[in-house]
Write a structure and sequence with these properties.
- The protein is built from 5 helices and 2 strands, in the order H-H-H-H-H-E-E.
- It is mainly alpha-helical and 118 residues long.
- It has a two-stranded antiparallel sheet with strand order 1-2.
- Helix 1 packs across helix 4 and helix 3 runs antiparallel to helix 4.
- It is globular.
């Protein structure tokens, strides 16, 4: 067995959320500023920069995956800190996104709410 923590169902959103809640509790994020939303946004920006660096510097897929996991943990932790159901928000947003049209802009696909800019 490797060093990975054993979980009942690693694909369970609820178990991931519980693990992140346990991390917050272990370090008393609520009482020590770790759940302050502007601080969390700054940490997410930092992690996004590390994701960008992993890509632009040609780091391994394993390194990229770790940085993406850091960002996912921060996003899920922000749902805990702000007290909203991220899973519900994700599916609500996916319903909206699936109804949108896409456009090619500068050779890349873009799915957005395109508003007339003229």
């Amino acid at each position: 067995m490797d060093n990975k923590q054993s979980h009942c169902n690693e694909d369970s959103y609820d178990e991931m959320l519980a693990a992140i809640q346990a991390f917050h509790d272990k370090h008393d994020f609520k009482g020590t500023g770790g759940e302050d939303l502007p601080y969390r946004v700054a940490l997410m920006a930092e992690e996004l920069g590390e994701i960008s660096s992993a890509i632009t510097k040609g780091k391994s897929t394993e390194s990229l995956a770790e940085e993406c996991a850091d960002l996912m943990i921060l996003v899920m932790g922000t749902a805990i800190a702000a007290d909203f159901d991220l899973k519900t928000a994700l599916w609500k947003k996916m319903d909206k996104l699936m109804k949108r049209e896409s456009k090619m802009i500068n050779g890349k696909i873009r799915v957005s709410e395109f508003r007339d800019m003229s």
